[in-house]
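STRUCTURE REQUEST FORM
Protein name: Acetyltransferase
Source organism: Alkalicoccus luteus
Requested output: structure tokens
Priority: standard
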Amino acid sequence: MKELIVVGAGGHSKVVEETVAREGNYVIKAIADDKFDEVIMHKGRIHMPLMTAASLLQLFPEARWIIAVGSNETRRRLREKLPVPQTKYAVIIDPSAVVSPSAVIGFGTVIFANAVIQASAKIGEHVIINTSSIIEHDAFVGSYVHVSPQAVLTGAAAVLEGAHIGANASVIPGKTVGQWAIVGAGSTVVHSIPGYITAVGSPAQRIRKGGKEVEEHTG
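Status: completed
Returned output:
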């Protein structure tokens, strides 16, 4: 099996690790996170502070990497900070997920259990396609997006960079969610919404400009 380096050791990372185990293509050799104060060996894996993660490029030169962090903004920052070539980032797909052979999946993306990605969908880099979510035909998902559990993007819907689609939310055909926008859980996007806002309800309506991740991104 190929070697894998995991960046992040929080709750999202736990799901990524279990998905890696089910997929069976990789063996995790190291986990890097700020929660570790020193380099230690635990259960056959190196645990180390994030600030020293770059040294793993020399220790495991053939390894693939995955940024296992739930925050869209933090994934973006880590991708820009780590000196890891984009082609070294893995794509992790749970065996129970259904992915069309005509779909395009970017580096660093994770697709969790029971997700469905239909024909000609395009998924960017470092995206989270969470449990039981559906990406329909010809939909577009930009880099650093998080599509939460059981969310649905219908045909030709678009979600631009850094946006977050809440659990059980849906975007109807042909509509766009702007970059770094947040769509609340259970909401329905029936009109395209601009970037850098939070929208909730059915139909989804703007309730405020931005949100925590957006403030970090623009600040």
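Reviewer notes: Residues 212-219 have pLDDT under 50 and may be disordered. The chain has two domains: 2-88, 92-218.
Form closed.
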